[in-house]
């Protein structure tokens, strides 16, 4: 059984990935500093998978603590999620983002080099494409200047990984993950006011937020609101399992990158309408000003992931909006 170190393994994407790793016969070792999640997620992963998980409360920037994990376990590969991801906060506090996202990556890579471990899957983002000249974007589409320090940490992260010739690395460029596990035991747990669309929608629907503000309706799109490629978090989690298998079968790969999206673009109002219809809810929303730094439209050409990783998205937008709402209801009940 292969052992996979999962940094940020109790976060939103990390927790779903840990479940899929266990389902696929891997042994995950979870490292998380709990800065943006709760220890309760560990129990919930164990409930879903009927398996005890190894967990260390460690910050990836703490080299001594991180090294000690490699002394206790024979690690085959690493999936590196641990990073901050709030675009607005990164503009306010850029050094916090460079310190954590770049500092954490470098610390991890130093430990990997010292321990002779080369396999790594890196969480990248479609943000590297900025405002693309056209969509769908493929992996050869130009990298645009990042519109935030957060986005820049993903670009710089990819560059660092490209330069580290001792690695066998796959970077996954995520589009917009939403939804939750079908058990409603794990999902997105935003602390404070959500920045992202789906948790804002579900929190508005349940009455935590008064109303959703749709950021702009005069974009050059069919209904004037921005277009994104929303992907079910479980499909995204499975892409990591496929990436590990790719690394195992391409031992001299060095560095490769894959778009992980459904290949379909939906507007903000498409999502709102689908959420209302499928969950039989009327959502309070208003049209507000554009959000600074927002991309007008971007969706993925995912053919490289389909052909080379043998990955595909199996969940529909209906699954996404329904599971997101089921998760919000379950959260409410557990309070
Ligand atoms: C952003 C980042 C992305 C990052 C992700 C992680 C950019 C361009 N995108 O994605 O790289 O990985 O955050 O957090 O930097 N919206 C509303 N009202 C709201 C919230 C969102 O209308 O209250 C709209 C936005 O304008 C956007 C869409 O919903 O059109 C999706 O927004 P969001 O969920 O924040 O994701 P991105 O901005 O696409």
Notes on the structure:
This protein has 335 residues and is an alpha/beta fold. It has a domain at 3-177 and 231-262 and 301-314: NAD(P)-binding Rossmann-like Domain (Rossmann fold, 3-Layer(aba) Sandwich), CATH 3.40.50. Helix content is 41%, strand content 17%. The chain is built from eleven helices and 13 strands. It has helices at 12-23, 40-49, 63-72, 87-92, 94-115, 149-163, 197-205, 233-249, 268-279, 303-309, 317-333, and strands at residues 3-7, 27-32, 54-57, 77-80, 119-125, 168-174, 176-178, 212-215, 227-228, 230-232, 255-260, 266-267, 285-288. A seven-stranded parallel beta sheet has the order 3-2-1-4-5-6-11, sandwiched between helices. A two-stranded parallel ribbon has the order 7-10. A two-stranded parallel ribbon has the order 8-13. α1 links the parallel β1 (3-7) and β2. α5 packs parallel to α6 and α7 crosses α11 (317-333). The two termini are 37 Å apart. Uridine-diphosphate-N-acetylglucosamine binds next to α7 and β8.
Secondary structure layout plus pairing:
Layout (H helix, E strand, L loop, with lengths): L2 E5 L4 H12 L3 E6 L7 H10 L4 E4 L5 H10 L4 E4 L6 H6 L1 H22 L3 E7 L23 H15 L4 E7 L1 E3 L18 H9 L6 E4 L11 E2 L1 E3 H17 L5 E6 L5 E2 H12 L5 E4 L14 H7 L7 H17 L2
Parallel strand pairs: 1-2, 1-4, 2-3, 4-5, 5-6, 6-11, 7-10, 8-13
Antiparallel strand pairs: 9-12
Helix pairs in contact: 1-2, 1-8, 3-5, 5-6, 7-11, 9-11
Report the total helices: 11
CATH class of the domain at 3-177 and 231-262 and 301-314: Alpha Beta
How does CATH name the architecture of the domain at 3-177 and 231-262 and 301-314? 3-Layer(aba) Sandwich
Protein structure class: alpha/beta
Bound molecules: uridine-diphosphate-N-acetylglucosamine
What is the string of helix and strand elements?
Answer: EHEHEHEHHEHEEHEEEHEEHEHH
Shape: globular
Q: Please identify which CATH superfamily of the domain at 3-177 and 231-262 and 301-314 we are dealing with.
A: NAD(P)-binding Rossmann-like Domain
Strand line-up in the sheet with most strands: 3-2-1-4-5-6-11
Largest sheet report: 7 strands, parallel
Rg calc: 19 Å
Strand content: 15-25%
Determine the CATH topology of the domain at 3-177 and 231-262 and 301-314: Rossmann fold
Mean pLDDT, rounded to whole units? 97
Report helical residue fraction. 40-55%
């Amino acid at each position: 059984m292969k052992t996979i170190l999962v940094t940020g393994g109790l976060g939103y994407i990390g927790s779903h990935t840990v479940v899929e790793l266990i389902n696929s016969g891997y042994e995950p070792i979870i490292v998380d500093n709990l800065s943006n999640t709760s220890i309760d997620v560990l129990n919930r992963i164990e409930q879903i998978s009927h398996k005890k998980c190894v967990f260390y409360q460690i910050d990836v920037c703490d080299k001594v603590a991180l090294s000690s994990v490699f002394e206790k376990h024979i690690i085959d590969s690493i999936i590196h999620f641990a990073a901050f991801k709030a675009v607005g906060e990164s503009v306010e506090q850029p050094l916090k983002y460079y310190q954590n996202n770049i500092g954490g990556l470098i610390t991890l890579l130093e430990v990997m080099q010292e321990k002779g471990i080369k396999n790594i899957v890196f969480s990248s983002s479609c943000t590297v494409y900025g405002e693309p000249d056209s969509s769908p974007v493929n992996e050869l589409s130009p990298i645009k200047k990042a519109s935030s320090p957060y986005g820049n940490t993903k670009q710089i992260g990819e560059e660092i990984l490209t330069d580290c010739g001792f690695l066998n690395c796959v970077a996954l460029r995520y589009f917009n993950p939403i939804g939750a596990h079908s058990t409603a035991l794990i999902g997105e747990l935003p602390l404070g006011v959500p920045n992202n669309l789906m948790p804002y929608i579900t929190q508005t629907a349940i009455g935590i937020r008064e109303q959703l503000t749709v950021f702009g309706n005069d974009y050059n799109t069919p209904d004037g609101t921005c277009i994104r490629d929303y992907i079910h978090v479980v499909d995204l989690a499975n892409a990591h399992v496929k990436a590990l298998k790719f690394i195992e079968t391409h031992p001299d790969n060095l560095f490769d990158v894959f778009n992980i999206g459904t290949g379909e673009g939906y507007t903000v109002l498409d999502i709102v309408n689908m959420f209302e219809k499928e969950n039989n809810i009327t959502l309070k929303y208003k049209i507000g000003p554009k959000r600074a730094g927002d991309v007008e439209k971007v969706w993925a050409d995912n053919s490289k992931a389909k052909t080379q990783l043998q990955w595909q998205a199996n969940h529909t937008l209906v699954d996404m909006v329904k599971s997101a709402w089921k998760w919000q209801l379950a959260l409410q009940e557990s309070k």
